[in-house]
């Protein structure tokens, strides 16, 4: 009986030891909110559902540099900031432009990508070249984006807002609206797939940043340090070249 008891104690001690060493060995998790509707930055593989894109590769590299395990949490674009504030994830990696308005609610990492808005039209439409040509017109956008902001400033324009970015572009292909305002690289990616649309030169200057809760100064520092090391090591350039072509 005594022998059985001491064996039991030994077993329990072993379980505790193995358990705690597993805990000690485990990397801290970095939960990342994204809206995976924005190729080539974040999207899902049609067959496997895997998350792919420039942002996804970059956040994995940042996670590795910070010795953290990345977990992607797919969330509707217009719910991303509220979800960060609620604590559903630790940061947002979603081609999110650093804006003064957003800086009131969240903090951003150092910028990691420069971008701009472009106008997408049907390939045969030469009547729309500049923002001035959009006065009084219908414009499709993804809701709450900087494209939405730009369209909303155009005089007499009717802004049609979509939850998903590709749906806003689809609206131009359908002929339901003459123009969509969206980020350059996304317009390029989708126009590459469909030759019935084209896009112009960027008319805004924007920088993407990783959004983090203002209170989480520890993580802001950690992510900035990791981003800097991913840039210094050349890994950033490798990821960039993979998604946007090198030179
Ligand atoms: N850069 C634009 C913005 O910050 C659009 C980003 C949309 N991102 C996305 N994953 N749908 O407003």
Query: What compounds sit in this structure?
Result: arginine
List the uncertain runs: none
The span between the termini is 75 Å
What is the CATH H-level superfamily of the largest domain? Periplasmic binding protein-like II
Number of contiguous helices = 9
Q: Strand order across the biggest sheet?
A: 5-1-6-15-7
Structural Rg: 23 Å
Verbal overview:
With 247 residues, this protein is of the alpha/beta class. It has 2 domains: 28-114 and 208-244, Periplasmic binding protein-like II (D-Maltodextrin-Binding Protein, domain 2); 117-204, D-Maltodextrin-Binding Protein, domain 2. It is 41% helix and 22% strand. The protein is built from 9 helices and 15 strands. It has helices spanning 2-25, 54-65, 80-86, 100-105, 146-152, 165-174, 184-193, 217-232, 235-244, and strands at 29-34, 37-38, 42-44, 51-52, 69-74, 91-92, 107-108, 113-115, 117-122, 138-142, 158-162, 179-183, 197-199, 206-208, 211-212. A 5-stranded mixed β-sheet has the order 5-1-6-15-7. The protein has a 5-stranded mixed β-sheet with strand order 11-10-12-9-13. Strands 2-3-4 form a 3-stranded antiparallel β-sheet, with helices on one face. Strand 10 (138-142), helix 5 and strand 11 form a beta-alpha-beta unit. Helix 2 crosses helix 8 (217-232) and helix 2 runs antiparallel to helix 9. The radius of gyration is 23 Å and the shape is elongated. The mean pLDDT is 93. Bound molecules: arginine. Arginine (ARG) binds next to strand 2.
């Amino acid at each position: 009986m005594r022998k059985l008891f001491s064996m039991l104690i030994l077993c329990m001690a072993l379980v505790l030891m193995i358990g705690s060493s597993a805990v000690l060995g485990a990397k801290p998790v970095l939960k990342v909110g994204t809206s995976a509707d924005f190729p080539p930055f974040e999207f899902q593989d049609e067959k496997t559902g895997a998350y792919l894109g420039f942002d996804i590769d970059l956040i994995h590299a940042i996670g590795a540099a910070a010795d953290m395990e990345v977990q992607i949490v797919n969330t509707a674009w217009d719910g991303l900031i509220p979800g960060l504030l609620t604590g559903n994830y630790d940061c947002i990696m979603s081609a999110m432009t650093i804006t003064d308005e957003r800086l009131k609610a969240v903090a951003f990492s150092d910028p990691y990508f420069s971008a701009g808005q472009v106008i997408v039209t049907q390939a045969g439409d030469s009547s729309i070249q500049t923002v001035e040509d959009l006065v009084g017109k219908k414009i499709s956008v993804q809701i709450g984006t900087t494209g939405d902001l730009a369209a909303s400033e155009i005089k007499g324009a009717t802004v049609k807002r979509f939850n998903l970015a590709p749906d806003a572009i689809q609206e131009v292909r359908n002929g339901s609206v003459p123009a969509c305002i969206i980020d350059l690289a996304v317009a390029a990616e989708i126009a590459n797939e469909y030759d019935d649309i084209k896009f112009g030169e960027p008319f805004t200057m924007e920088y993407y940043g990783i959004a983090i809760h203002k209170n989480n100064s520890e993580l802001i520092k950690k992510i900035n340090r990791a981003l800097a090391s991913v840039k210094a090591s050349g890994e950033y350039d490798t990821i960039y070249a993979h998604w946007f072509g090198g030179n």
